[in-house]
């Protein structure tokens, strides 16, 4: 759809400085962010004399294409998570498997080295170690895209695994059922962000997740209140909601989120 | 040793087949999914079955197949291979069986010596656990267990790591160049410090107790 150039809203605080905080102090700087060219044309046409309008006729005024609905946005967001999951699978079934197979071929080569050449065996062993290091890096990349354990075993096991790798005390109580790739993806990355943003030595954190009707209801206790904003960025596009229950500015807050499952 | 193999990645399957043969093992069959492996083992006896965790039937074909195999052939050893070493899968595997089982990373069995050692330990009844996973469990205990594990001596930590890899007392003794009696003593000390009361002479229960202790969450306060 044709759109006019988007003018970013500028908001001013009391001190006159510009901020990109969309939720505060709106000033009337003009925006046409949501106005399509057709809508603009219609508005302008109102000011033209009737005769001119008749000449222009309605042929120039095309029917307005339907604006993207909430469910369109949600569909796009769900597609994003499916794409991430596909990419991870591609890594697993492609590059990672090839490299693993290469370590076996090197092992075979090492086995066939002449016995009077022990240095060759050592060098091949070093190459295999290097491939292991490369695979470790690929595993990190895959986990940042869409954790394979999340894909295969679900939210509970994936969060358990994250918790077991952190120095901080975390209790995860998430039912074993599946909630769909986008709800699980958004919930997982939101919680991981909450957990990793806490300083070492922070009090115990509790993560509870369960299904209520068609929603995944998540509650995270003992995290920073400001993490609610990051969670909101991930969860709202999926049609979900995020609430800060205990708004103590920077500590011991509970964030609850409700995410529709597919 | 007679080995059967199920892996859906052709490149890896062929590579493993060649390495197994080079190591002098008899490969009784090679399949690309779990169902074919179950069918194969109905007629072909084997000592150990090697299974990819992530293969058909989806999603965790290796685990489903292993459960069927354990029910049908209780003495068959099971070696699980994966691209990931996760404690979640370790616990799932130990639910299938705590004897003659192994869990290793695919790229870590790429030598004749390691492959043969892994298969022999499984066939002799041991639990074989990927060292990187065992190390992670010991080095990063959860919550209050951190202080308990930190109270162990260096030598006791070495013993704990090897226990978490599933080694027997004799295996630990030969790795650390100490007598089995010394290992027993270290294990008794470790169990006292961790507050575990398992029978230290029962190998499988002992390994299970240690792994469960290291992985379990801190109780809710």
Topology (elements, then pairings):
The complex is a heterodimer of chains A (262) and B (221).
Chain A: E1 11-12, E2 18-19, H1 37-45, H2 50-56, H3 70-111, H4 118-145, H5 148-153, H6 155-165, E3 170-174, H7 181-196, E4 205-212, E5 215-223, H8 227-235, E6 241-244, E7 253-260
Chain B: E1 2-6, H1 10-22, E2 26-31, H2 34-43, E3 48-52, H3 61-72, E4 77-82, H4 87-96, E5 101-105, H5 112-123, E6 127-129, H6 131-139, H7 145-150, H8 154-164, H9 169-176, H10 180-194, H11 203-215
Parallel strand pairs in B: 1-2, 1-3, 3-4, 4-5, 5-6
Helix pairs in contact in B: 2-3, 6-8, 8-10, 9-10
Structural account:
The complex is a heterodimer of chains A (262) and B (221). Chain A has 262 residues and is of the alpha+beta class. Chain A contains eight helices and seven strands. Chain A has a five-stranded mixed beta sheet, with helices on one face. A two-stranded antiparallel ribbon of chain A has the order 1-2. In chain A, helix 6 (155-165) runs parallel beside helix 7 (181-196). The radius of gyration of chain A is 27 Å and the shape is globular. Mean pLDDT of chain A is 79; it is low at 1-35 and 55-60. With 221 residues, chain B is an alpha/beta fold. In chain B, strands 2-1-3-4-5-6 form a six-stranded parallel beta sheet, with helices on both faces. In chain B, helix 6 crosses helix 8 (154-164), helix 8 (154-164) packs across helix 10 and helix 9 (169-176) crosses helix 10. The model of chain B has no long low-confidence stretch (mean pLDDT 92). The chains are: A alpha+beta (262), B alpha/beta (221). At the A-B interface, helix 3, helix 4, helix 5, helix 6 and strand 3 of A face helix 1 of B.
Please provide a brief summary of the model.
Chain A has helices at residues 37-45, 50-56, 70-111, 118-145, 148-153, 155-165, 181-196, 227-235; strands at residues 11-12, 18-19, 170-174, 205-212, 215-223, 241-244, 253-260. With 262 residues, chain A is an alpha+beta fold. Residues 1-35 and 55-60 of chain A have low confidence and may be disordered.
